[in-house]
Specification:
Layout lengths: L1 H18 L11 E4 L2 E2 L7 E3 L2 E5 H7 L3 E5 L4 E6 L2 E6 L4 E4 L2 E4 L5 E3 L2 E5 H7 L3 E5 L4 E5 L3 E7 L1 E2 L8 E2 L1 H13 L3 E2 L2 H10 L7 E8 L2 H13 L4 E5 L16 H10 L2 E5 L7 E2 L2 E2 L6 H19 L5 E3 L7 H10 L3 E5 L5 E3 L7 E5 L6 H10 L3
Parallel strand pairs: 1-13, 14-18, 14-26, 15-16, 17-18, 18-19, 19-20, 23-24, 24-26
Antiparallel strand pairs: 1-2, 3-4, 4-11, 5-6, 6-7, 7-8, 8-9, 10-11, 12-13, 14-25, 21-22
Length: 377
C-alpha cells in the first residue's frame, strides 16, 4: 500500500513538473527609474519572455494613478492620466478606455504581488520608456526633455570624432525615427524653453557644426528624405571655401536648405573657430573683436538667407560670461554649448545655456540612445 501511495505521489510530482513553464530566460537585478528616481520595490522586477514586469501597485501609485482589484474576475482596473485600463491575470486580453487591446505578455501574480509588463502600462498612460543595456536600467519618464545631437562631417574615408560614414548617419536617423522620436526646429526649442509651447511626445533636435559640404549632400538629403529637421551652425567666413581637408557648402546650397524648411542655418561665429595659444579664440579675444565677429556673422547670414538669425553655437562648446553677454547684446536668443555627458535639456533650461551631445563618428545609434537615457537620471 505504501509503495502504491509513493508511486502515486511521484507520478503527481512528475506531472506537475512537466506542466510548469520553464523560465530559464528570467533576468533579475533590474533597476527601474521613474522621472529620475530609483524605485525600491518590495518584490524584485524581472525580465521574462523579453518583457520587464514590475509590481503594479507601487508603480501606478508613483504615477499618481489608482487601482482596484476584482477578485471575482481576477482582474485589476487602473485609472491614470485620463486612461481607464482593465487587465486580467494570466491573460493577454486587456481594455483601454473600453477598447480591446492585446498585450505581448500577460500580468501574473508572484507571491502577493501583481506583476505587470511595464512598457505597456507606461506608454498607455503617456510615459516614455527606455532600456539601458549595460546597467540593466529601465528608464521611465513623463517629464519633457529634449536631447540635442551634434554631427560634423560625413565621409567613407575615415571614422573618428568629427567624421562619420554616411550610412551610419542614415542608420542613426532611421533608429530614432523608428523609436518614436520627432525632430524639432530651433523655433520649436525656443518656444518650449521661453513659453512652454507644447512639443511632440519624444522630441529630438539634430544639429551640425562648421558647415561642411557633406552636411548638404548627406545630412540635408537624409533629413529631407525622412521628413525630419535639422539646424546647421556654419562658420560664416568659410562658406564656399575649403579651409582644411574638407570643402564647405556654398551660399546657393545654404539658401536651398534654408528655403526647404528642412534645415535652419545659424551662426558658429564669422571667423573665430580656431585657437590662440591653444585656447579658443572666442573666449580669449578682446571685447571689440568678439562683438565685431558675432555681429558680422549674424549680418552676413541674414543678408544671404533673408532671415533673422537667432542662435549661436560656441566653437568647441566653450564660453564665458563676457562672450555670453556680447552674444545677447548682439541679438542672439539661443546659445549652444557642450557639457560632458549631458546633452539633454529640460523645461527649466535657460535658452542661453542649451546643451548638446557631440556624436562621434564611431558611435552607433544605440550608443547615443543609451547616453540620452542615462542623462535623465
Amino acid at each position: 500500500m505504501k509503495k502504491v501511495m509513493l508511486s502515486t505521489v511521484l507520478m503527481i510530482i512528475i506531472l506537475l513538473w512537466g506542466c510548469s513553464p520553464a523560465y530559464s530566460d528570467t533576468q533579475k537585478n533590474i533597476s527601474v527609474y521613474i522621472n529620475g528616481n530609483l524605485i525600491n520595490y518590495s518584490s524584485e522586477p524581472y525580465i521574462r519572455e523579453g518583457r520587464t514586469r514590475v509590481p503594479l501597485r507601487k508603480t501606478i501609485e508613483i504615477m499618481d494613478g489608482v487601482i482596484k482589484w476584482h477578485g471575482n474576475t481576477r482582474s485589476v482596473s487602473i485609472k491614470a492620466e485620463g486612461k481607464n485600463i482593465l487587465l486580467y491575470i494570466n491573460s493577454t486580453k486587456a481594455y483601454v478606455n473600453k477598447n480591446a487591446v492585446t498585450l505581448d505578455v500577460a500580468p501574473v501574480i508572484v507571491g502577493d504581488r501583481t506583476m505587470i509588463p511595464i512598457r505597456f502600462l507606461s506608454e498607455t498612460i503617456g510615459y516614455n520608456v527606455g532600456w539601458v543595456s549595460d546597467t540593466q536600467d529601465v528608464v521611465i519618464s513623463n517629464v519633457p526633455y529634449i536631447p540635442i545631437l551634434t554631427y560634423h562631417n560625413f565621409t567613407n574615408k575615415v571614422a573618428n570624432g568629427a567624421n562619420m560614414p554616411p550610412d551610419r548617419f542614415r542608420n542613426h536617423m532611421a533608429f530614432f525615427h523608428n523609436h518614436g522620436y520627432t525632430t524639432i526646429t530651433l523655433d520649436d526649442l525656443l518656444g518650449f524653453l521661453n513659453h512652454r509651447k507644447p512639443l511632440p511626445r519624444k522630441p529630438l533636435m539634430i544639429t551640425f557644426d562648421d558647415g561642411y559640404e557633406s552636411q548638404y549632400t548627406v545630412g540635408y538629403q537624409t533629413l529631407k528624405d525622412m521628413d525630419m529637421h535639422g539646424t546647421i551652425f556654419a562658420v560664416v567666413s568659410t562658406v564656399g571655401e575649403t579651409p582644411g581637408s574638407w570643402p564647405h557648402f556654398t551660399w546657393a546650397q545654404a539658401r536651398e536648405m534654408e528655403n526647404s524648411g528642412v534645415i535652419d542655418v545659424e551662426s558658429h561665429t564669422y571667423a573665430m573657430h580656431h585657437k590662440i595659444n591653444g585656447k579658443p579664440a572666442l573666449t580669449h579675444s578682446s571685447t571689440q573683436a568678439i562683438r565685431k565677429d558675432l555681429t558680422t556673422a549674424k549680418n552676413i547670414l541674414e543678408q544671404h538667407l533673408d532671415k533673422t538669425v537667432k542662435a549661436l553655437a560656441y566653437p568647441y562648446g566653450k564660453w564665458n560670461e563676457k562672450v555670453k553677454q556680447i552674444a545677447v547684446d548682439t541679438g542672439y536668443q539661443g546659445l549652444f554649448l557642450f557639457k560632458e555627458g549631458i546633452g539633454v535639456n529640460f523645461a527649466d533650461q535657460s535658452p542661453l545655456m542649451i546643451d548638446r551631445f557631440g556624436v562621434g563618428g564611431h558611435q552607433t545609434a544605440r550608443d547615443i540612445y543609451e547616453e540620452i537615457l542615462k542623462s535623465t537620471y
